[in-house]
Amino acid sequence: MKGHLLRNPRVWLGGLILAGLGLVLVGPLRWLFDYGALVEAIRSWGNQAVILFVLLFALTTSLGIPATLFPIAGGAIFGLFWGSLWSLLGATLGAIAAFGLARYLFHDWLQRRLGHHRFMERFNQAVVANPFIFVLAVRVTPFSPFSIVNFLFGLTHIQAWHYSLATFIGLIPSIVVYTWFGVAGDQLLTTGNLLPLVGASLSLLVLTLLPLIWKRFRKHKVNTPD
User: Fold this and answer.
1) Dist CA 145 CA 124 (whole Å)
2) Rounded to whole angstroms, how far apart are CA atoms 174 and 179?
3) Among 20, 109, 213, 224, which residue's beta carbon has the most beta carbons within 10 A?
4) Residue ranges of the VTT domain (predicted)?
């Protein structure tokens, strides 16, 4: 009986959800929703700040918990270059871990509940048609449901290396922009300079509009005769 319970995906999923809630409510993940507390905590880690930042970012992402504040905090603490690098590493590792959980631990259970939905069918079709480009396009969009998408890709037949590489490359623009917000916010507080924050905001706007611009460009190209 005990062995059967341990092999039941519901038990694992329930345990992960409870662990995630516990970390958010009473553990280190309570900082997820408090930017000031997150920055203060990371600074207090001293020489271990980088490794703990990356691991906590990855853990949070793998559990499906939103971690938008991490790259912003990384920019304020580590600067634009290093903050972007450590955030990119944490986000990518977390996305790969969530993908692995969905594919190897919860696949059958999730497939029975989500596989018949029309959205999932269309999602699968898009992945099959062009796996690398599709993942890349999804990752470039800054406001895509990052945590949910990680698990959805695990239910498809995409190769892990396609998913991992496209995720790493596709996350670069949004990670850099969010990190820039952290740098700009820190500069605003210390020097009163508003220009970096304006630049970061405009960059986020461009990044948000980019998929729409690309879609209209492709539509125009298809409708334009040679």
Assistant:
1) 17
2) 8
3) 20
4) 65-182
Whole-angstrom distance, CA of residue 173 vs CA of residue 178: 9
This prediction's pTM: 0.79
Distance from C-alpha of 122 to C-alpha of 68, rounded to nearest angstrom:
27
Q: How far is Cα 130 from Cα 201, in angstroms, rounded to an integer?
A: 31
> Mean pLDDT over all residues of the chain?
81
Cα→Cα distances 102→67, 72, 92, 97, 106, Å:
19, 28, 15, 9, 5
Does residue 214 fall inside a structural domain?
Answer: yes
DSSP state at residue 115 = T
DSSP-based three-state secondary structure for 23:
helix
Average pLDDT over residues 65-73: 89
Cα distances (Å, whole numbers) of residue 123 to 3, 68, 94, 135, 195? 35, 24, 21, 11, 40
Cβ atoms within 10 A of the Cβ of 219, count?
10
Domain that includes residue 124, residue range:
34-223
**Letter for the amino acid at 119?**
F
Half-sphere exposure of 23 (CA within 13 A, CB side): 17
- What are 21-46's pLDDT values in tens digits? 565 555 555 667 788 888 988 999 99
Of residues 13 and 59, the one with the higher pLDDT is: 59
72 inside domain: yes
